[in-house]
């Protein structure tokens, strides 16, 4: 286990510049917003009666974050599909967004082909690859970004592009009303949290390093609610892939109806489990009360807990703050394990086996 204040050791275990990409998350957000929010769409893309996003992994938790964050402001039904086929209701009045950083995701390609058969309107958020080619063949407008601020090249470390790319497209499509000032303030707050979390900030003053040390070697239950539910899923994804740590995203109030009874077994659970509560003063009052009582119930069953108090003044600012903390924390956890934060050997093995089987 390395010392997180040992900058030379961190460089040794990060040859593919994951840290550099993590530090540029606010720049990713700014670039994606500036570009995607000014996207042009043909006149026949209005009206839209529902929106379906096809995406997997890092290209899924980002639109899910936007869906949960703005569930009270997105003007049309907005669904995320993580499968090979689209819902039966998709038709000519539906906008299908193909979300794929790599442009190679087979489930997303399948959904795109399904959308064409249904006569749906098509667009995408994409870096390149076969999906970008497919959209061009369909003469479909898209936001195709150049990931200038993601030198490591990993989609999950370039989440700012997908996150604010989705929000920008919704703005361009007039599916959401949001002011430039709200976005600017949120990104400014993300820059502040980034400065506090960088590798040259000592652990005693660094919220991400302290969080990594607190979470290490635990079975993590990531607890969020309301507008942070999408982030909870995204943080679990980052922990799984970057930190190589099992994580279980859960939401309040839904977990209060069953999960707290399941903590009795296995008997070894108190030895490994840790509930990480992402707290916000912007949650509704009933939900804030549930956080406090849930923590009490968990601790009474001898399960460890840890609170992360978000400080942004708007929901969007807190979501970006949470992603900054989540990105740095996942990276520092990988460093604590002397682990390559980029490598995903079991995902690669799985994909190789599928190809051998002709799938």
UniProtKB/TrEMBL annotation:
<dbReference type="Pfam" id="PF10432">
    <property type="entry name" value="bact-PGI_C"/>
</dbReference>
<dbReference type="GO" id="GO:0004347">
    <property type="term" value="F:glucose-6-phosphate isomerase activity"/>
</dbReference>
<dbReference type="InterPro" id="IPR001347">
    <property type="entry name" value="SIS_dom"/>
</dbReference>
<dbReference type="GO" id="GO:0004476">
    <property type="term" value="F:mannose-6-phosphate isomerase activity"/>
</dbReference>
<dbReference type="GO" id="GO:0005975">
    <property type="term" value="P:carbohydrate metabolic process"/>
</dbReference>
<dbReference type="InterPro" id="IPR046348">
    <property type="entry name" value="SIS_dom_sf"/>
</dbReference>
<dbReference type="GO" id="GO:1901135">
    <property type="term" value="P:carbohydrate derivative metabolic process"/>
</dbReference>
<dbReference type="GO" id="GO:0097367">
    <property type="term" value="F:carbohydrate derivative binding"/>
</dbReference>
<comment type="similarity">
    <text>Belongs to the PGI/PMI family.</text>
</comment>
<feature type="domain" description="SIS">
    <location>
        <begin position="41"/>
        <end position="179"/>
    </location>
</feature>
<dbReference type="InterPro" id="IPR019490">
    <property type="entry name" value="Glu6P/Mann6P_isomerase_C"/>
</dbReference>
<protein>
    <submittedName>
        <fullName>Bifunctional phosphoglucose/phosphomannose isomerase</fullName>
    </submittedName>
</protein>
<keyword id="KW-0413">Isomerase</keyword>
């Amino acid at each position: 286990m390395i010392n997180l204040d040992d900058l030379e050791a961190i460089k040794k275990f990060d040859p593919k510049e994951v840290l550099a990409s993590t530090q540029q998350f606010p720049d990713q957000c700014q670039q994606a917003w500036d570009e995607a929010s000014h996207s042009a769409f043909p006149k026949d893309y209005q009206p839209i009666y529902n929106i379906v996003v096809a995406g997997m992994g890092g290209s899924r938790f980002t639109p899910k974050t936007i869906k949960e964050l703005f569930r009270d402001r997105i003007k049309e039904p907005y669904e995320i599909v993580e499968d090979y086929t689209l819902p039966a209701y998709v038709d000519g009045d539906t906008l299908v967004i193909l979300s794929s950083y790599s442009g190679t995701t087979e489930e997303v390609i399948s959904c795109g082909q399904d959308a064409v058969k249904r006569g749906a309107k098509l667009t995408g958020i994409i870096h390149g690859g076969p999906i970008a080619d497919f959209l061009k063949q369909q003469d479909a407008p898209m936001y195709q970004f150049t990931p200038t601020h993601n030198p490591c090249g990993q989609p999950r470390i370039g989440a700012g592009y997908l996150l604010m790319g989705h929000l920008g497209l919704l703005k361009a499509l007039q599916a959401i009303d949001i002011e430039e000032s709200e976005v600017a303030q949120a990104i400014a707050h993300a820059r502040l949290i980034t400065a506090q979390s960088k590798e040259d900030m000592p652990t005693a003053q660094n919220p991400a390093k302290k969080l990594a040390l607190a979470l290490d070697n635990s079975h993590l239950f990531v607890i969020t609610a309301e507008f942070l539910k999408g982030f909870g899923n995204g943080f679990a994804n980052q922990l799984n892939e970057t930190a190589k740590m099992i994580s279980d995203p859960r939401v309040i109030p839904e977990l209060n109806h069953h999960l707290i009874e399941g903590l009795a077994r296995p008997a070894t659970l108190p030895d490994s489990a840790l509930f990480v509560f992402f707290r916000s003063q912007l949650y509704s009052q009933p939900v804030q009360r549930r956080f406090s009582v849930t923590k009490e119930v968990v601790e009474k069953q001898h399960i460890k807990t840890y609170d992360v108090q978000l400080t942004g003044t708007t929901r969007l600012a807190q979501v970006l703050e949470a992603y900054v903390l989540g990105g740095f924390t996942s990276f520092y956890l990988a460093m604590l394990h002397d682990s390559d934060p980029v490598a995903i050997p079991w995902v690669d093995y799985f994909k190789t086996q599928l190809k051998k089987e002709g799938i």
